[in-house]
Design a protein that fits this description.
Layout lengths: L33 E5 L6 H12 L3 E2 L9 E4 L5 H8 L9 E4 L1 H9 L41 H5 L17 H4 L1 H10 L7 H12 L9 H4 L7 H5 L3 H24 L9 H5 L4 H16 L3 H15 L8 H5 L6 H13 L3 H6 L3 H10 L6 H9 L5 H7 L4 H8 L1 H5 L2 E2 H18 L4 E4 L1 H4 L4 E2 L2 E6 L5 H18 L3 E10 L2 E8 L8 E7 L5 H9 L2 H13 L3 E3 L2 E4 L14 E4 L3 H8 L12
Parallel strand pairs: 1-2, 1-3, 3-4, 8-11
Antiparallel strand pairs: 5-7, 6-8, 9-10, 10-11, 12-13, 13-14
């Protein structure tokens, strides 16, 4: 699954492979056949198993639609129209077999390539095949007696009949099947639709030459295949029970796969405080912060994964071998974990801040509006302090505010003060329009005792982004400047995903400037926006990754399905909006238990 190009697995995490089984060449029933799966990837563990088993038995997996495809295998829940829409065709080629996901395992079970025309292999929404018109056939006599069932020993020595061509049904010698088989063949040519009896007769013909001994054990171990005993029972109740058991196994497998995602678990301040790996996590978090400031993308991802993995452990991880046993932790991080546990320090972290140049770089990275590139440039130009920047460096308006109020912006904001900022903005907003709403987001909404800045989500029931943005920029923001609450405008952006106003504010009678972000969100997107602007970052990444694994896309505007992706997971189409307004509904669609904001502290 999270990702390596074609299959969409997440970057840095290896996808668990199904164990391949060596099948003798004479038993490779799919040799020469080319399968095209729909969806045509191995992201799903169950589909990956089906693909692997088909390849074990000689089939080729074709990743690109073409004339060489012989069979299209369609997942349950998808319809015939879905296939046509995906392939961009009005009709499906008659030369290619279109079957549901049970077809490969059924063929393997009976050691024969079964007819794709059987009704149990029919894809939802696919029209039933019409019988060919032939010359009239006399109806069988109602008094005709049924043939006596051959003895079990005779069945073992029966030989399959040869096909008589595409226009006639396959026939067995009369002494083996008896008169009733011919009567059934005649009934099948009268123009009626195929039924379950036709399928059973055809299946019996296809496998009557096979031995009755049990099948190989490796087939019985797979979740996609059913047992021999179930196959021998043709009653409806046994078939329904078999289907329920297979579906239960699939549901359990899917549930186990999804449970590994961080967003599936409850994360709050208490559970984090009780974690036996707290000290290790705290030191690794400092390294993560360092790599985030220095824009080291890959190390940032590695540390996030390691911290997330340690938070899930119920026992203290002390040694290198214990750390290596945890998925998501490599050799270098395992060495660092052992060093932290046994020495209560990490030399790499100490070295990161050891030289004067490192100290200066960290100082410059704290200036609002300065990233790693700008901070490194100032360092290379010989600046060594904030006074040097203020006196000598050419600064933008935002950078000058960042330098002048460096101390203010570096201070954490107590929860009560965040509430006070929110109250002032809410009063001004509802004075302009009583129906408009102000929601405090970020770490405040997660229940934190303090925050780095003030995030305020502005919305209105039924309103679009244009109305909210106009009301805020032309009425509310100028009014807050006039009353002395807002002190500076740092960024005013109007993007495709909404609008933001970034600035600085100060409480009446206060002396510290605080960073404040006003986020304008239309009502149709408020649910997705609350997820995005609540965080935390690890929880949001987990939600987005889970959506991606399910063929969807989640961002601050909504949850989308039918998303088309190209090489390296590039978006080729926005997809269809499923939900954007209801925060809880997005959780429900993704199959994630509702996590209130205070349980998203990952």
């Amino acid at each position: 699954m999270p990702a390596n190009a074609k299959t969409g697995v997440a970057s840095g995490k290896r996808k668990r492979k199904c164990q391949s089984v060596v099948i003798p060449e004479q038993q490779q029933i799919f040799r020469g056949l080319v399968f095209f799966f729909f969806p045509n990837n191995d992201v799903s563990p169950l589909r990956r198993l089906r693909i692997q088993r088909a390849q074990d038995y000689g089939a080729s997996w074709e990743r690109t639609w073409g004339n060489n495809v012989t069979h299209v295998i369609v997942d349950k829940g998808l319809t015939f129209q879905d296939v046509l829409k995906h392939l961009g065709q009005e009709t499906f080629p008659a030369s290619i077999a279109l079957v549901n996901e049970s077809y490969p395992s059924e063929c393997v079970k009976f050691r024969s390539v079964l007819s794709a025309m059987q009704s149990r292999f029919r894809v939802n929404g696919m029209a039933a095949p019409k019988a060919k018109e032939t010359s009239p056939v006399d109806e069988p006599s109602s008094t005709a007696s049924l043939a006596v069932k051959p003895a079990r020993k005779e069945q073992r020595h029966q030989t399959p009949s040869e096909s008589s061509g595409s226009q006639h049904a396959e026939e067995l010698p009369e002494q083996e099947i008896g008169k009733s088989a011919k009567e059934t063949e005649a009934a099948r040519e009268t123009g009626r639709e195929r039924d379950a009896l036709d399928d059973m007769i055809e299946e019996a013909k296809a496998v009557n030459h096979l031995p009755l001994e049990p099948f190989d054990s490796h087939d019985e171990d797979t979740t996609a295949e059913v047992s021999e005993n179930e196959a021998s029972d043709t009653s409806e109740s046994r078939h329904a029970e078999k289907k329920r058991r297979v579906l239960d196994k699939e549901d359990k497998a899917a549930d186990a796969w999804q449970q590994k995602f961080t967003c599936m678990q409850k994360h709050d301040s208490k559970s984090n405080a009780d974690n036996p790996n707290n000290r290790t996590i705290a030191v690794l978090q400092q390294m993560l912060d360092y790599y985030s400031r220095t824009d080291d993308h890959w190390r940032t991802i590695a540390y996030r994964k390691a911290i997330s993995a340690l938070r899930r452990q119920s026992k203290k991880i002390a040694t290198r071998s214990q750390a290596l046993a945890i998925p998501g932790i490599g050799q270098r991080l395992a060495d660092k974990i052992e060093e932290i546990v046994f020495t209560n320090r990490l030399r790499r972290l100490e070295n990161a801040n050891a030289t004067p140049e490192d100290h200066i770089l960290q100082l410059f990275l704290g200036v609002y509006g300065a990233g790693i590139t700008q901070a490194s440039r100032w360092l290379a130009q010989g600046y060594k302090s904030l006074e040097d920047l203020r006196a000598k460096a050419p600064l933008s308006q935002q950078q000058r505010v960042g330098v002048d109020h460096y101390y203010d912006f570096s201070q954490r904001i107590p929860r009560r003060e965040v509430e006070a900022h929110g109250t002032i903005v809410r009063t001004a907003v509802q004075k302009a329009d009583p129906e408009m709403q102000v929601i405090i987001g970020g770490s405040y909404r997660r229940g934190a005792s303090d925050s780095g800045d003030v995030d305020l989500v502005i919305t209105k029931p039924g309103a679009k982004i244009e109305y909210i943005r106009t009301m805020m920029i032309e009425t509310v923001v100028p009014g807050l400047f006039r009353q002395g609450f807002l002190q500076a405008s740092l960024a005013n952006t109007s993007l495709r995903d909404g609008s933001k106003w970034h600035g600085a504010s100060k409480l009446p009678g206060g002396r510290l400037w605080r960073r404040i972000d006003l986020l304008f969100v239309p009502d149709a997107e408020i649910g997705a926006a609350l997820i995005y602007f609540t965080g935390n970052d690890i929880f949001n990444r987990s939600m987005r990754l889970l959506a991606s694994k399910k063929g969807m896309r989640l961002n601050q505007r909504g949850l989308y399905t039918d998303v088309l992706r190209g090489p390296q997971r590039a978006n080729l189409g926005a997809g269809r909006l499923v939900e954007g307004h209801d925060e809880r509904r997005i959780f429900e669609i993704l199959g994630v238990p509702w996590r209130p904001p205070e349980h998203r502290i990952c």
